[in-house]
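Protein modeling request. Please complete all fields; requests missing the sequence field cannot be processed.
Requester role: graduate student
Desired output: 3D structure, token encoding
Chains: 1
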Amino acid sequence: MYINLHLSLPSQTDVAVQIIANLYHSFPTQRTVIITHSNAALNDIFDKVMARGDVDERYILRLGSGERNLTTTSSSHHDFTKTGRVAHIMSRRADLLEKVQQLSEALGVSLKSERGVNGAPSYTCETSEYFFFHQVKQRVHVFQAAAMKKGDTSNIISIFPFKRYFPELEGASATLSLDEAAEKIREIETVFDELAEYRPIELLRSQRQRTDYLLTKQARIVAMTCTHAAIARAYLVDLGFHYDNIIMEEAGQMLDVEAFVPLLLQRGESDDNSASAGAHSRLKRVCLIGDHNQLPPVVKNQSFSRYSHYDQSLFARLIKLGVPSIELNKQGRARPDIAKLYSWRYDNLGNLDHVSTKEVFKRANTGLAHTFQLIDVQEFEGRGESTPTAYFYQNVGEAEYAIALFQYMVLIGYPPEKISILTTYNGQKDLILDILAQRCGEGTPLSGVVPGAVSTVDQYQGQQNDFIILSLVRTKAVGHLRDIRRLVVAVSRARLGLYVFCRSNLFCNCHELRRTMDQLAARPTKLQLVKGEHFPTERMTGDEVQSNLHEVNDVTDLGALVHSMQQEVAISS
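Delivered output (573 residues):
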């Protein structure tokens, strides 16, 4: 068993997806289990696996309660739950049997009985299998023998037995070479190969039997969260579930036990058939993917956390013990200038080529003068931070400012789902949601418009979005952002744009945060807009803004601008 530790940088999910695809193609008979700390990270992996297009979806299965909310951007109608996979198989089976029916009609095979099996070739997977062996395969052998005997294989369409099945071969001018004929035959064989895999599902009658068969026999990529692995372990072991590879994403956020339990979802194998033989794990590869430079597992009991180091993940322990690991040296998520905000935290972190060459990274952010900015927020209505209840930190000025910027971006054409609003405290998150409900609620010009996410930095770890609006809340003390790991998470969520609202003199004077804050403070601390642009802009990131540059004085100024833009929208509509 080999343990590979890949230290997570912003391209960690892409690395995980590449590893999954490599195992899928290199070891067709092996099963891989994917474990993540959160449902959001697991869904992100599914998005990227499906976007690749080289992993057959019939071999993918998703377990756990979060499966109900899984929709892939590449194909939103896919359902990867156990019942969803069975429904997909039965639907796919019907489509393939229809192709068998078309083939039988093209060959002139009528309703008949073969070896005691009554029904048309397309009646069941079983009848289609008899049809393949006694009709299709026989014709293939006869054709191949005749083609070799003919000698001239430049055009063999006259002896090709399946030409009526392929409409493109019907015309008088149609031609067919031996290689093309082989491709056509393989296309037909693929239909019967897939139906052969569905035959056991067809024979099993109850939904439970079908889902269990799918889980234990057919699925080659099985995904779940570490929480579901703990809940379902006894059931999986009793069912006889087995797997050869395990990949743990977000391993740096998992408690020791959360990372250990997924390794024990199957019974061990004995070296021989004797009862006294010791069992050993059948696991061949264990790959932990995480980042000990980001936030550790959350442990609310301070005694466990402080004195037992219970908040130290198995991933971090293995790193400290010197277990061989691989640290990614290039990031592929963010613009190079945004990546510099946190790249100092890693050794020799560079950039993949596409973050400099792809059009989306070269193009400027519409209506915004900078790709990232720190916006200084002073007292709003005489208040900075407030605590309605203990430790429930809020900042009305920053919340209003963040919502106003979101409204401005949406009004000039940004897709709202590409914008996420983050904050460092739950109190501020609740306040932002309340203000958002008022500003974009029913009866407003932006009714029903919501960001891609409104979340805390801690909860958003492992996720990303094109544009991040970040509120740091505190005005009297830096608070828990003093933990540099939380800052790394906060500034590494954005791909194309990052806009940070805070009390600049407080955070810029914090020694622990200086490496990042100095870069943020090097740009103007008042929000700078470019008026007259509509998403997407033709302006490039290096272009100097010479006209239509508008500097926002405060939240009231931006609020007035947004209000006038909304009135224009209302009049035009």
